[in-house]
Amino acid sequence: MNKPVLQVIVASTRPGRAGRPIAEWFHGKAVESGLFEVELIDLAEVGLPFLDEPHHPRLRQYVNAHTKEWSATVERGDAYVFVTPEYNHSFNAVLKNALDYLHHEWHNKAAGFVSYGGVSGGTRATHGLRQVTSTLKMIPVLEAVNIPFHTQFLGEDGRLHPNDIMDAAAGTMLTELARLTGALRPMRAA
């Protein structure tokens, strides 16, 4: 059986964002684990406009090329890790928009979260994401990576320099994502 595909999705699209180096670090950890085929998906590169489909996503009657491309990308994934900032006690609008574009493509797939921010480490963003992903029939794992005061871990080289706690949390979450993804595969095949 082929390895499941884990998509690491960078939510932030702001210039100078921390999300990309944080996602690149996590992507490296996921590749190193050997548990998944790993893809890095940057919503800044996907470039979805605000939802502009005339039909509800549940119908899968997409008319726009960007929606069809996004659908094919997400369909390819078996599990997702959303790398999200915390904006005003929640996750950002670009990620909500990307989630709302689709429906069936998300079903019965595992979801994990890498969040970053100030004192809360993005945990309030993760709390909101758990509700949305569950509504889309994803199964969020309890384990997460939360990075408080994330700027202290960003080097002048533009890369994230994690501490042992972050590395351990990433490993624990990846193990749980792999277990859950294996359990969910038969549900999707049916």
Report on this structure.
The structure is a single chain. The longest helix has 26 residues, at 164-189. The mean pLDDT is 96. Helix 1 packs across helix 6 (164-189). Strands 1, 2, 3, 4, 5 and 6 form a 6-stranded parallel beta sheet that branches. The protein has one domain (5-189): Rossmann fold. The chain is built from 6 helices and 6 strands. It is 41% helix and 17% strand. It has 190 residues and is α/β, with parallel strands linked by helices.
* CATH-defined superfamily: Flavodoxin domain
Termini Cα gap? 17 Å
Q: List the secondary-structure elements in sequence, H or E.
A: EHEHHEHEHEEH
Helix amount: 40-55%
- The general outline is globular
Strand proportion, as a percent range, falls in 15-25%
- CATH hierarchy: architecture: 3-Layer(aba) Sandwich
Task: Describe, in short, the structure shown.
By secondary structure, the chain is an alpha/beta fold. 41% of the residues lie in helices and 17% in strands. Strands 1, 2, 3, 4, 5 and 6 form a six-stranded parallel beta sheet that branches.
Main attributes?
single chain, 190 residues, alpha/beta, Rossmann fold, 6-stranded parallel β-sheet, globular
Question: What's the arrangement of secondary structure elements?
Answer:
Elements: E1 5-10, H1 19-33, E2 37-42, H2 43-46, H3 65-76, E3 79-85, H4 93-100, E4 110-117, H5 123-135, E5 139-140, E6 145-148, H6 164-189
Parallel strand pairs: 1-2, 1-3, 3-4, 4-5, 4-6
Helix pairs in contact: 1-6
